UniProtKB/TrEMBL annotation:
This protein's name: histidine kinase
Reaction(s) catalysed by this chain's protein: ATP + protein L-histidine = ADP + protein N-phospho-L-histidine
InterPro entries in alphabetical order: HATPase_C_sf, HATPase_dom, His_kinase_dom, HisK_dim/P_dom, HisK_dim/P_sf, Sig_transdc_His_kin-like_C
Domain of life: Bacteria
Species of provenance: Pseudorhodobacter turbinis
E.C. no: 2.7.13.3
Pfam families per the UniProt record, alphabetical: HATPase_c (PF02518)
Histidine kinase domain span: 232-441
């Protein structure tokens, strides 16, 4: 429609020019009829010739002589003169708009070249009302044609957009809804078929996403089944190992020197196996229970961990505790015990693996918004692979044969408190973890 509007003004100007040229041509034909009879025509015939040309009078320049060929009374003064010999496109468009806007009937003079070089120029005087009416009729026809073209174009555009865009997009949406009902079914992954480049790229991206998600879900399902099986096996194996541990304790007191020498190793192996089973069972639970918060002193809890893990009795391993005597935390004591036990046990195992003397350091403090606890050692540091998957179950173990569950469990327990467990550093000088526990939880904030 905008294009039609831009085209209409030049078009109506061209129509007006053709109309005026036709009037000049008819006036010339009328004048030639008069010249052929040497001016011997009746008044009625002259009037008929002027009415047929739709002009008031005709002036013809021939042989350097200006002749008034046909004439009739003019109802009003001449309001404007249009010389078509020198008119530019801009002048024609301006004059056409003036005629359309002015609804009054005026008399105008029009000058042009006679056809077939039948003189120097021809000049007519004519009314503007018939010209305006013809221009309005032409404009109406152009409008109707433009409306028809617009309707046809809009219809074609509608069907083209529907065929090329709407239907492919609707197909993509239907595939997304169908896939959402059963994402593990690979048959519901979309197959790109659109011929539109952009829509096909969207289909290919959706296909890649669905394929990856289906594969991930299948892997998760297999891991869940494997985890369930491992948990069941670990449960029964723990019971068997517990019984074996009781017999191993009795063997340890044997008077046989060979048995006495082998028994501690056997007891240590069984103890580690029981610990692994318990860790696997703990991680295999759907989720850890919510922490039961209470206030307690951190120092005694750390001493209890050191005593339970026999860290002070390990040859070449010493413990350095730097905790303010009056430091009181608000947390779940049992869960924090498990976190510290995992961290300190890992530190002890790292020191024992070196075969050299080392120190396990535990320090703590508080800020206005949180408590912090640091657990570090002077061991060899964590390997790069362990640091990349540090808190991922079965992948973050730093020693051969380890399960990688300890840090994963500790990370989950700290997060359950709304806190963070982070690796501060790990290099040749040792490894250091830090625990952040917030002083305010969401329930307390809501209550206040």
């Amino acid at each position: 429609m905008l294009a039609e509007v831009l085209i209409f003004v030049p078009s109506i100007a061209r129509f007006r020019e053709d109309y005026l040229l036709l009037r000049l041509e008819k006036a010339q034909i009328a004048s030639l009829a008069l010249l052929a009879t040497d001016g011997m025509i009746s008044t009625e015939l002259e009037t008929e010739l002027l009415a047929n040309a739709d002009v008031y009078n005709v002036v013809l320049w021939r042989d350097q002589i200006r002749q008034l060929i046909l004439s009739s009374p003019v109802n009003s003064d001449i309001s404007a003169t249009y010389d078509l010999r020198i008119a530019t496109p801009l002048h024609l468009m301006r004059d056409a708009l003036v005629v359309l806007v002015d609804s009054q009937d005026h008399a105008v003079r029009v000058i042009g070249h006679p056809v077939q070089d039948a003189g120097f120029l021809i000049e007519v005087t004519m009314p503007t009302a018939p010209l305006r009416k013809a221009m309005l009729d032409y404009g109406l026809r152009v409008f109707m044609l433009s409306a028809l073209i617009s309707v046809v174009t809009a219809s074609l555009l509608f069907f083209a957009v529907r065929r090329l865009l709407v239907l492919p997009i609707r197909r993509v949406v239907e595939h997304m809804a169908l896939y959402a009902d059963a994402p593990e079914d690979a048959r519901r992954v979309i197959a790109p078929t659109s011929g539109v480049v952009e829509v096909r790229e969207a289909e290919e991206a959706l296909q890649s996403l669905q394929t990856q998600m289906t594969g991930a879900l299948r892997q998760k399902e297999r891991l869940a089944q494997l985890g369930s099986a491992v948990a069941k096996i670990s449960h029964d194996l723990r019971n068997i190992l517990t019984t074996a541990q009781l017999f191993a304790d009795r063997i340890e007191h044997s008077v046989d020197p060979v048995v006495a020498r082998i028994a501690p190793k056997l007891v240590g192996s069984i103890t580690r196996a029981v610990s692994l089973c318990e860790s696997t069972l703990a991680f295999g639970k759907a989720e850890e229970p919510s922490p039961r918060l209470s206030r307690f002193a951190l120092g005694p809890l750390v001493e209890e961990v050191i005593e339970a893990e026999a860290l002070g009795e390990r040859p070449g391993v010493s413990c350095l505790v730097d905790i303010p005597a009056g430091l009181i935390l608000r947390a779940d004591a049992e869960q924090l015990y498990r976190v510290l036990a995992n961290l300190m046990r890992n530190a002890m195992q790292a020191l024992e693996a070196t075969g050299k003397e080392g120190v396990i350091e535990v320090s703590a403090g508080e800020t206005d918004s949180a408590w912090w606890i640091r657990v570090g050692d002077t061991g060899p540091g964590l390997p790069l692979r362990a640091r990349e998957h540090l808190f991922t179950a079965f992948q973050g173990s730093a020693r051969k044969g380890g399960s990688g569950l300890g840090l994963a469990i500790a990370f989950e327990l700290v997060r359950g408190h709304g806190g963070r467990l982070e690796l501060l550093r790990s290099d040749e000088a040792g490894t250091e973890f830090i625990i952040h526990l917030p002083k305010m939880d969401g329930l307390e904030d809501a209550g206040q």
